[in-house]
Amino acid sequence: MASDECTGYAGKSSWPELVGVEGTVAAETIKRENPQITTVDIVLEGSFVTTDYVTTRVRVWVNENGIVTRVPIIG
To answer: Which helix H or strand E contains 40, and what residues bound it?
Structure first.
């Protein structure tokens, strides 16, 4: 696994290949590919979220059909 320059952690930090995938499938993929991620939040587009940056969290943004609409990234 490559080191992520931004977070200093090993493992993936973004998952562009998950755009268009079902949110729950994306969440499981993220957890499997980077075990340092402790929180994967599935968030409905248009929802309000905090602006803090958490190196162990990924938000998976989905539409009303549960499909990923943005590239999931650490933060």
So the answer is: strand 39-44
